[in-house]
Specification:
single chain; about 650 residues; alpha/beta; Aconitase, domain 3; Aconitase, domain 4; 3 domains; 6-stranded mixed beta sheet; 27 strands; about 30% helix; binds FE3-S4 cluster
Length: about 650
């Protein structure tokens, strides 16, 4: 039987296990990526593991989430990250150089490689045939030290693209259509492999918009085959020698197949406040818009902003609507500037901003209270924009720009009819891209300026957890609903995330958006459990969302289901993730006494799947631990750091 493209890459990198759905496999990692909010911990963990040199082909540290310097903390972190990259042998991308996925795509992503990144949108380079997976930072630290990455072999689903996108429908509409059909849980345990004749009609930047936002489906990753488009895109970057032709075999068998006819698509929009709340733009046309932002790792490339610039040329935006453009990389900004598009956009009324994550995580350009903001980003979780009562819509650059011109949501096809002289802009790739060779903002390991770690006062040690105990009991500290995100657990706003390297301080903010007395109650209880509905921990890969509850003494989470990366992070920090059914979830009340009846340490080590949980010494439920043998050893040893150290000590 032939192989899928995913199987071919995994086979090439397999160090443990068999490529059978549901089996745990270990794969070798070629490239790692980390960014500034997760990177400090990655390097502190790398140091704590007594590693002294990066072992992967490429390791890159980007500074993109916290680039604004409000006081010394972000700058201290960036200096630490530069020193860590220099000391251990990684590339260092300076603040302002761009968003990790954009800069990585432009400089390092290559067909057939594997990549692990401590950011949930790591799958972005799947658009050029790289198998890239988001994970917690500790997994990245271990992979960077040469260790394999372990994962349960996902189902491989073919997304067969047919036809060609009509005018004004875009790659963003392809992924919004996927979200409309399958929801934010539709990709859990799956890899989406794009196939079919429609693939060749999409450019590499269009493909990476789709693979980037596969994360919102909960997918492990998404990937496209490579072809002349890929080759052409790499040659524009001076990287044609990194091209390799990659395709599935003709007789490859997939676990499932989805068909999307591109020619049937129309402009779509995700309404507040979930990326899967998708409707045709025409359904919400007429809604007044206060703010529009173009950018992010989904639609921040030169090829994303160019169509907007063309639509704006010779026009001005509505007087009541602000339009901010924040490209995904300095390279994109530079190309737009060299070709005169920045001046055109400014003349139209654009506020041209730094290449950074910024507004995507509520840092800068926070919307006014009770206002509507249209963004080309990938997430619109409630409060993520920096204000609780936000109303954020997600759409393509074309839909966003049409709204900025009209001052209200409008299907760009209708605006084009109304204006009479606005053609669908399409994408024309500019003549020349910059290359990493002469990029002063990307410092290669052999150009490093530091050879020792520089730690400022806001950078502390990583807390370690003791071995799992035999008896686990404590109160249900907090009961939460479905789809709790890592943003709920540890918000990524500047006032909070500036403590990302200072765990005791950061922990004070744990789940504060759900219940601001939680952290103190957890500390006072000295142990206890979180209770949640479906898909607990969806969203960003932020391992602080497991580390901070661990620091506060939380012992485990009882949830109906877990998001993949967060569940791995719970193992990595020694927290017991138990699945419970919907009826039991309904019955548990916040404050109930929870006791795991089994000898927990013994049961975890011996592979026991079902645990008896006694509530209020009154009734019992059965909870399930779905974990591989390796995850069980990690959990029992008190988390991955303690486990890896123990392994190293025992030789
Ligand atoms: Fe940055 Fe937002 Fe992407 S925070 S990495 S632009 S999802």
């Amino acid at each position: 039987m032939g192989q899928t493209l995913t199987e071919k890459i995994l086979d090439d990198h397999l160090v443990e296990g068999e490529l059978e759905t549901g089996e745990e496999i270990g794969i070798e990692i070629d490239q790692v990526l980390t960014q500034d909010t997760t990177g400090t911990l990655v390097w502190l963990q790398f140091e704590a593991l007594d590693m002294d040199e990066v072992q992967t082909e490429v390791a890159a540290q980007y500074c993109d989430h916290q680039t604004y310097q409000f006081d010394f903390k972000n700058t201290d972190d960036h200096r630490f990250l530069r020193s860590a990259a220099g000391t251990f042998g990684a590339h260092y991308s300076r603040p302002g150089n761009g968003i990790c996925h954009n800069v990585h795509k432009e400089n390092f992503a290559a067909p057939g490689k594997t990549m692990l990144g401590s950011d949930s949108h790591t799958p972005t380079p799947g658009g050029l045939g790289e198998l890239a997976i988001g994970s917690g930072g500790l997994d990245v630290a271990v992979a960077m030290g040469g260790g394999p990455y372990y994962i349960e072999m996902p189902e491989i689903v073919s997304v067969r693209l047919e036809g060609e996108l009509p005018d004004w429908a875009t790659a963003k509409d392809v992924i919004l259509e996927m979200l409309r059909r399958f929801s934010v849980k539709g990709g859990v345990g799956k890899i989406f492999e794009y196939t079919g004749p429609g693939v060749e009609t999409l450019t590499v930047p269009e493909r990476t918009t789709i693979t980037n936002m596969g994360t919102e489906l909960g997918a492990t990753t998404s990937i496209f085959p490579t072809d002349e488009e890929t080759k052409d895109w790499l040659s524009r970057l001076g990287r044609e020698d990194e091209y390799a032709e990659l395709k599935p075999d003709d007789d490859a068998e997939y676990d499932d197949e989805i068909v999307i006819d591109l020619s049937d698509l129309e402009p779509l929009i995700a309404k507040p406040s979930m990326p899967d709340n998708v409707v045709p733009v025409r359904e919400v046309a007429g809604e007044k818009v206060d703010q529009v932002i173009l950018g992010s790792c989904t639609n921040g490339g030169y090829e994303d902003i160019l169509p907007a610039a063309k639509m704006l040329e010779g026009r001005t935006i509505d007087r009541k609507t602000d339009l901010i453009v924040a490209p995904g990389s300095k390279q994109a900004s530079e190309m737009l500037a060299r070709e005169g598009w920045v001046a055109e956009m400014m003349a139209a009324g654009v506020n041209f901003s730094e290449a950074t994550c910024g507004a995507c995580i509520g840092i800068g350009h926070v919307p006014a209270s009770d206002s509507v903001s249209l963004r080309t980003f990938n997430r619109n979780f409630e409060g993520r924009s920096g204000i609780e009562d936000d109303s954020v819509y997600l759409c393509s650059p074309e839909v966003a720009t049409a709204a900025a011109l009209k001052g209200e949501i409008v299907d760009p096809r209708d605006l084009a009819d109304e204006l009479g002289d606005m053609d669908a802009p399409g994408i024309e790739i500019g003549e020349k891209y910059g290359t990493s060779a002469d990029d002063p903002d990307l410092i290669a390991p052999d150009e490093a300026v530091d050879d020792d770690l520089i730690k400022g006062p806001n950078i502390g040690d990583v807390p370690l957890k003791d071995e799992l105990e035999s008896e686990l009991a404590g109160p249900a500290l907090l009961k939460m609903q479905d789809n709790i995100t890592t943003d709920h657990i540890i918000p990524a706003t500047q006032d909070i995330l500036m403590y990302r390297s200072n765990i005791p301080k950061l922990s004070e903010f744990t789940l504060s958006r759900v219940d601001d007395s939680f952290a103190q109650r957890a500390l006072d209880a000295d142990g206890g459990f979180l209770v949640a509905g479906e898909n607990y921990g969806q969203g960003s890969s932020r391992e602080h969302a497991a580390l901070c509850p661990m620091f506060l003494g939380v012992e485990g989470v009882l949830a109906q289901s877990f998001a993949r990366i967060h569940k791995a992070n719970l193992f990595n920090f020694g927290l017991l993730p138990l699945e419970i059914d919907a009826d039991d979830y309904e019955k548990i009340e916040q404050g109930d006494d929870i006791e795991v009846v089994d000898d927990v340490s013994e049961a975890v080590r011996s592979g026991q799947e079902e645990f008896t949980v006694r509530v209020n010494n009154d009734w019992e439920l059965t909870a399930t631990l779905d974990a591989s043998e390796r995850e069980r050893r990690i959990l029992a040893d008190g988390g991955k750091l303690s486990h890896t150290k123990k392994q190293a000590e025992s030789g």
